[in-house]
Design brief:
Blueprint (H helix, E strand, L loop, with lengths): L13 E4 L6 E2 L2 E2 L3 H10 L3 E6 L6 H12 L6 E5 H10 L4 E5 L2 H9 L3 E2 L6 E4 L7 H12 L3 E4 L5 E2 L6 E2 L1 H12 L4 E2 L5 H10 L5 E5 L2 H11 L2 E5 L18 E3 L5 H8 L9
Parallel strand pairs: 1-4, 1-13, 4-5, 6-7, 6-8, 8-9, 9-12, 13-14, 14-15
Antiparallel strand pairs: 2-3, 10-11
Helix pairs in contact: 3-4, 3-7, 5-6
């Protein structure tokens, strides 16, 4: 979703921000987030919000960011795991059974998919804070009967001011166990989300700021982007990081991103990437 209404394509590069744990925690903005985003936008950076949270549409995301941080950018794009899943499913299927909230349902409908309760060609599972036993049972039955099984993401938790709470991955785990089949995952760091975010990137100098090494930073490193870990979300200071989610930079909070970018900003050519 492109919200740039100015027609101005001048920019320095792109900074991709995860949301939960980076820009806000639930209904509380991270201190300094709005100021940092405004500073970067005013400097000409193109901003992309890329979230594995499937519960909001792009317009909902922008309203949530503004309400929690005061930031109302005009040079902003949004990518959600629901959008990545919808794009993937719509290429080969027409009907879906959904385990998820209204934002996921709206995103799938907007992609031209028919939401059904039976005889679905695909089952799409995201975060659903009203999940019930019947939904798990029906999803598992459809998958066992041959429906393609799609997870928006498999994040086990997501951060809140009170600490981590169960994420979509917890729901996916229950359905996977009952169905006896692993899903195709569309959120970070998997290819559907990577391709979606890459399609929104402008320029060759690209940063990604996230709080979850195995999703946010792993995707950045796969793409050849500069990866920045913030410590306001699921990763506590001093946590060992293994695998392909090693950050290029670690900072306390999003408030420090403008100074970090300014100190390191040497735009790279395509060959250098």
């Amino acid at each position: 979703m492109n919200t740039d209404g100015t027609g101005n394509t001048a920019h320095t590069g792109t900074i991709v921000f995860d949301l939960d744990g980076v820009v806000y925690l639930g209904d509380v903005g991270v201190p300094g987030a709005g100021e940092a985003l405004a500073t970067l936008s005013n400097l000409g950076w193109h901003i992309v919000f890329a979230t594995n949270n499937s519960t909001r549409t792009p317009s909902d995301v922008l309203r949530h960011v503004e309400a929690r941080t005061g930031f109302k950018g005009v040079n902003v794009d949004v990518a959600t795991s629901a959008m990545a899943a919808a794009g993937w499913v719509a290429r080969e299927h027409r009907s879906v059974f959904v385990v998820g909230e209204q934002g996921l349902r709206d995103t799938l409908s907007n992609a031209g998919l028919e939401l059904v309760d039976d005889d679905a060609e695909a089952v799409v599972v995201g975060l659903d804070r009203q999940i019930d036993y019947d939904s798990i049972t029906r999803a598992a039955r459809l998958i066992r009967d041959g429906a393609t099984y799609i997870a928006t993401n498999t994040d086990a938790t997501f951060p809140t001011p009170e600490g981590p709470v169960p994420g979509a991955g917890a729901i996916v785990a229950a359905i996977t166990k009952a169905a006896g089949t692993d899903p195709i995952t569309c959120g970070k760091p998997e290819d559907p989300m990577l391709y979606l975010v890459r399609s929104l990137v402008r320029g060759t100098d690209v940063w990604l700021v996230g709080d979850r090494p195995e999703t946010d930073l792993a995707m950045a490193n796969r793409a050849g982007w500069r990866s920045v870990l913030v410590l306001t979300g699921v990763t506590a200071p001093g946590t060992p990081i293994h695998g392909d989610g090693q950050p290029a930079f670690t900072i306390d909070t999003i408030a420090s991103v403008p100074a970090l970018v300014a100190s390191q900003h040497h735009p790279r050519t395509q060959d250098e990437r």
